[in-house]
Amino acid sequence: MTNTINKPFNATPAYLEHHIDRGQGSIYVRDYEGSEPAFVLMHGFPDNLHIYDDLIPHLVAGGRRVVAFDFLGFGYSDKQTGARYSYEQQLSDLHAVVEHLGLDKIVPVAHDASGPAGINYAIDYPEHVASVCLLNCAYGVAPTKKTPEIIGLFAHTDLKSYTQALLQSPEQFEWALKFQMSKFLEHMKDDSQIQYLANFLGPIIETNFTKHPTSTPAFVQMTSQLFEEVTRNTKRLPEMEALDIPFKLIWGDHDPYLNTGVAEDFHARLKNSSLHVLPAGHWLQIDIPEQVAAIMLSNE
C-alpha cells in the first residue's frame, strides 16, 4: 500500500508511505524523492525512524533520495503476537525494502545496532551498494567497545528470570531506560545538545515501549542474540575488510560505548574509508544534523 503525506514547509518534506509484507507483518517505509543512489536510513535497538527526522530535510534539500524505515517490531512497523526477530530478519527487511522500491544502488546508513544489517548487506549484495555510511554503530569485536548497561543486562540470557521480572514492572523498566539515557547524556559537553536530545529522544523511546503493541518483544529478542551476532560478525571481518566499497565513518566523539576507538578500528580495517569525528554524542544525527548531512552529501 502506498500513499502521499504532505507536511508544512520547514517540517519534514513530502514523502511516500509503503507497507511491505514480511510474512509476520509489514514494514513501514517513508520514501523521499530525489536523485539516486538513495540513502537508506536504519535505526537501532531502543528507537525508530524518527531519530532521522532532523537529518532528512538536509539530505532532501541536497537533492538526494532518502528512504527511512522501521524494522519489523519497531516504530510504525507491525508487531504481531509470536513474531520472531533476529539480525538475519533485519538484514532481510533491508533487502525487502530495496527490492520493493526497485532501487538499483543504495547507500546503507547504519546507526547503533543496525551496523550488522548495513555491513552484511554490503558483503552479501555489493552490486546494490554505492557506498556505506556508519554512524556510531557496532559490528564485530572492537578493542574499546563497551556495551550499554541495559543492553548487557538483557544480552546475558542467564539473567532472563531477572529481566522478565523487570519487564513486569513498567515503573522499574522505565527507570532502567532513564538510567541508561542519563549515562549517554553525562558524557556530552554541550548543554543545548543535552537538553534537545532529552526532549527529542525521550518520547520516541517511551512510545516504543508504552504504546501497545510495544517494541518490547523485538528489543528482548534482539538483545538476547547480541553476543552471538558479534561472534558471527567477527568471523566475517575478513569479508568486510576485502570490500572495495567506500565507507564514510561519521562519529560523535562523546559516545562512551560505541566510542571513537570503535570508529578508528573500522577505519584501520576497511580498505576504502574516511573518518569524520564530530562534537556530538551517540545520536549525532539528532545533535548536529546539518554537519552530518554535509559529510554524507560530500564527494569525499
TrEMBL record:
GO terms for MF: hydrolase activity
One Pfam family recorded for the sequence: Abhydrolase_1
All residue ranges annotated as the AB hydrolase-1 domain in the record: 37-287
Keyword Hydrolase recorded: yes
Protein name (Swiss-Prot/TrEMBL): Alpha/beta fold hydrolase
SUPFAM superfamilies, per the entry: alpha/beta-Hydrolases (SSF53474)
Superkingdom assignment: Bacteria
UniProtKB keywords: Hydrolase
